[in-house]
Amino acid sequence: MLSGTQLDGVALVVGSGRGIGQQAAFSIAEAGPRVIVFADLNEENAQASAEESKQYTSNKSHEATYFHVNVTDEKGIQAMVDFVIERFGSLDYAVNAAGVDNGVHTPVAEIDIENYDRIMNISAKGTMLCVRAEAAAMRKQTSKTFTSRNGTRDIGRGAIVIIASANSFAGLPGKGCYTISKHAVMAICKMAGLGHAAEGVRCNAVCPI
Fold first, then answer.
1. Residues 129, 53: Cα–Cα separation, whole Å
2. Is residue 5 one of the residues assigned to a domain?
3. pLDDT value, residue 155
4. Which residues contact 203 (CB under 8 A, 6 or more apart)?
5. Which of the chain's termini has less CB crowding within 10 Å, N or C?
6. What terms describe the molecular function in GO for this protein (predicted)?
7. 144 pairs with which residues across the strands?
């Protein structure tokens, strides 16, 4: 994912206990940031992933730690971001991969509202809470520069990546709750990107098929 890229600074990966979030965090480790914080609802998985990342890092000073978080908890999300800033001094990169799909295939007329609320709370509201807290922290930071043989350029105050889905653009029969939540996730990405670009905070999405 980040082949040939060298990162500096502090990365936070939410939903990194397993799956795409975990693999994204491992790819970030290969790019050599100073710190990666593995955040997940499953604290045991987050701790194990943080420890495993040390095998892949290209930075001898690499530090990996973990943080227990429930993405539907507004105060918990803020505590997570505050932890990163207070302990490591900055939040330079954030990946938001927490989401859920219970695998139930039903047409819209048969959607269970309790299940709908659960998926929307985790995937949509959870993403919004994370991005809101991350962007609020990043916009306060000093803009960084990158120097190469082509000169020095401004690279902004921070970068946010959201793990969305191909379902953020198209629907599949019976995947109503999941598709609706992923469309919402893409809207969050667009609005964060538009709203904070001028402040040097980037927000982009990755959409696995």
1. 26
2. no
3. 87
4. 131, 135, 159, 160, 161, 162, 189, 192, 193, 196
5. C
6. oxidoreductase activity
7. 156
Instruction: Answer yes or no: are the C-beta atoms of 129 and 75 closer than 8 Å.
Output: no
Inside any domain, residue 165: yes
1 within domain boundaries: no
Range of the domain at 193: 10-206
Q: pLDDT under 70 in the chain at which residues? A: 1-5
Whole-number Å distance between alpha carbons of 180 and 185: 9
Render pLDDT for 121-150 as a digit per residue (tens, 0 to 9): 999 999 999 999 999 999 999 998 878 788
What pLDDT score was predicted for residue 148? 78
**Total domain count, the chain:** 1
**CATH code of residue 49:** 3.40.50.720
- Is there a domain that residue 4 lies in? no
Write out the catalytic residue numbers: 178, 182
**pLDDT at position 193, please?**
98
In degrees and rounded to multiples of 5, residue 2 shows phi and psi of -125, 30
